[in-house]
Amino acid sequence: EEGQNIQEGLMPSEAPDSGGLMDISFSFVAAKYLGGDFYDFVEFEDSKHIGMMISDVSGKGIGPSLFGTTCQAYLRILATNPSETGETLKNMNERLCENKNNSLFATAFYLTINLDNLKMTYSSAGHNKMYLYRSSTNTIEYLSGKGLVLGMFTPCVYETLELQLEEGDWIILYTDGITELENSTLELYGMQRFEELILANT
């Protein structure tokens, strides 16, 4: 419980200020006290940009939680250019691979948003497909990008992609702690149920 309290304390308790342009909500519940998942926000010197990352470290317990905390620390150090999300993941991966003596790795999805024009830049390190809900068409699009998990191999290249957000759009970031949740008969919650939940509550 003490470790869980420390872990949760290392994650943001407030969303960054978007000047009223975006509503940002977030939640973290560890499956077994200490988890490898984490989320974090990035505030740049250039205040017109904000960044967000969600990550899932392999395994559960003390080791993965410390590896996740290391990822989080490198993000805060290395995320300096909001237009180079892929380069940030590349630099994080190189740091995580230095003198590595364990088998842990992390998937991650990292995005930045320009508050002046709502242009989003994003990259993925082997993470699940994230969701973009388009209000104008009431449909869900998948967001992904080329790039291997963090902390396993170097050098790696991470694709940097862009899209234009419109009023009413949603970005939904999550880890497989949602889609791989099991019921009493060991049936997975799955992506279809999650997408139906999103569309039913927009």
Short structural summary:
This protein has 202 residues and is α+β, with helices and mostly antiparallel strands.
User: What's the total count of β strands?
Assistant: 8
- How do the SSEs run, as a string of H and E? HEEHHEEEEEEHH
Give the uncertain stretches in residue-range form: none
**What does the average pLDDT come to?**
92
Number of alpha- plus pi-helical segments: 5
Strand content: 15-25%
Structural class: alpha+beta
Q: Indicate the overall shape.
A: globular
Q: Report how far the terminal alpha carbons are from each other.
A: 35 Å
Q: Main sheet?
A: 5 strands, antiparallel
Q: Provide the helix percentage.
A: 25-40%
Strand order of the largest sheet: 1-2-3-4-7
Radius of gyration: 17 Å
Indicate the topology.
Blueprint (H helix, E strand, L loop, with lengths): L1 H8 L28 E6 L5 E9 L4 H17 L6 H13 L8 E9 L4 E7 L4 E5 L4 E5 L17 E4 L5 E3 L3 H4 L10 H11 L2
Antiparallel strand pairs: 1-2, 2-3, 3-4, 4-7, 5-6, 5-8
Helix pairs in contact: 2-3
What does this entry look like structurally?
With 202 residues, this protein is α+β, with helices and mostly antiparallel strands. Helix content is 26%, strand content 24%. The strands form 2 sheets. It has a 5-stranded antiparallel β-sheet with strand order 1-2-3-4-7. Strands 6-5-8 form a 3-stranded antiparallel β-sheet, covered by helices on one side. The longest helix is centred in the middle third of the chain and has 17 residues. The mean pLDDT is 92.
